[in-house]
Structure formats: C-alpha cells, structure tokens
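Cross-check.
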Amino acid sequence: MASDKPYSAPCFVATIDLALAGKLREELVAQGFKITTPQHTLFSAQKNGVSCTLYTSGKLTVQGKNKEEFITYYLEPEILQNFTFSYPEANVDFTPRIGIDEAGKGDFFGPLCIGGVYANEEQIRELIKIGVRDSKKMSDPSVLKLSKKIRAICQHSIVRISPPKYNELYENFRNLNSLLAWGHATAITELVNKTSCREVIIDQFASEHVVKNALKRKAMEVHLSQRHGAEADPVVAAASILARAAFLEGLEQLGKTVAMELPKGASAKVVETGKSLVSKYGEKALASVAKLHFKTKNDVLND
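Predicted model, tokenized:
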C-alpha cells in the first residue's frame, strides 16, 4: 500500500473565498492566534509554530513546524472543504479494501465497539471528500455526524459489545487483546461475507499472530495488513469513526438506563461517578455499565 506520509512542502498554499475571511479570522482569534495586518494582506495570524496569512487576492499561506495538524484538523474541514493536503491523490491507495478499528477499550464505562468499513475506489474518493480522519482528533458531534454519512456510502459492520457481554467474554479470554482480536475477526468475517473482499487493513494493537489466530478460528482467510497509526488510511479512519460513534451512542444509552451521565475514560471524574452509582444502586450495578477488570473498579469500591 502507498505511504500514509505525504510529502510536506515548507509552505502550504490555497485559495479561499474571501467571504470566509471573517469566519477564519474570528476562529483563529478564538484559537489564540495573534493577528497582524502586513501590507497586501487581510491579516496574518501566528501561534505555536503556525503562521497563517490571508492576502487580499484570496491566497492563503500556512507555514511552520506545526502546520500539518492545523491544516488537517481545522483548515481543511472547516474552511477549505477539501482534503488534498491530508490525502494527496498521488499518495492515496484506491485498492478496494476493508478497514477495521475499535473504540472504548480505554473507557471504564460503556461498550467496546469495533467498526468495519468496505470501500472501493469511488467510495474511497467519497470518504476523502466528506473529510474522514482519525476519530480521536475529532469532536464528538463531528464523529456522530460523519458516521451517518459513512454508513450511507459504504458497506459496514459494527460489533457492539455491551458491558455485561464484555465482562462475560473477558472472563473467558482473560486477556483484552484476545477479546479485541475476536471482535476484529467478527467484523472482518461479516464484511468479507457481504463483499467478498479479502484485502483488510487494521490498526495494530498486539502481536500480528493474535488477530491472525482469531481469523483462523473462524476459518477466514484474508490478506491482512496490520499497521501502527493505520487511521491515516481513509478506510480505517472511516472505521474508527463508526466505532467511536457506536461507543458514544452506547455510553449515552447506558447513562439513560441509570439516570446518570457516564463520563469517558478512567479519570477521577469516572471514579466519582462510579461511587455515586454504587451508592445509588449497589455494587452489582457496575456490571451493567462498566468493564470490571479495570483497576478503576477498585478505586470505585475502596474508600
């Protein structure tokens, strides 16, 4: 597959509709940029290794050591509405493939969700056009919005493992990576059966043999590529968005069942919420909304 690291020129140049100049300036100020107005510009903005200048002609330049994240996660989706920097066509692999990723494995509350997406060349182009990217770099509302578009564009699979089912499976596997591999293999198998595609790429989370063995147990033969940072691939990025959206929706629904807002992660706020939950419903209630093998459980139950 092609490299996921496009060549990055010292200065990025684009042309924008000057009707967007006010929005751009306002949002840059909100992000903490310092604004100046050199000759022949509408403004220039500087902050933390990023220099962004909008000329009276509509030409926009961005440079600096931190420009890539600024362009990828703000400028392209919010202003430019195209993604030629993130996914330059020369570096995009348009081979039809299945991408898999998961969400929720580091969260005490909520389900573990595995998302899978199949995309052919036309669909990969469409995924890039709508702005798919690593869900961890996106706001929750953006994830939920994009997930609906992805489901409309692509064949997909979502494996939702609720906390009760997760706790049951963990008792059997006694290992999170083995449980994750089972979930990945389940999503892969469903999509292979739907599409007959056997080209699969996943974000590597364990030794390569772990997922391969899980696929063997399902008698599923595929050409499997495992990569760290695979969310740079647009199909895996789409899968990460579906997985994250499923997690967010599942977490919200669980919160409704216990009439409490369940926070993400495993922070002090999570422990505080867990203590409130146990105080209100008893210790057994944790099994319905939380992953019990987390050390967070001991923090919740101990004074």
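Residues 93-252 form a domain with the Nucleotidyltransferase; domain 5 fold (CATH 3.30.420.10). The first strand starts at residue 11 and ends at 15. Passed to J.P. for a second look.
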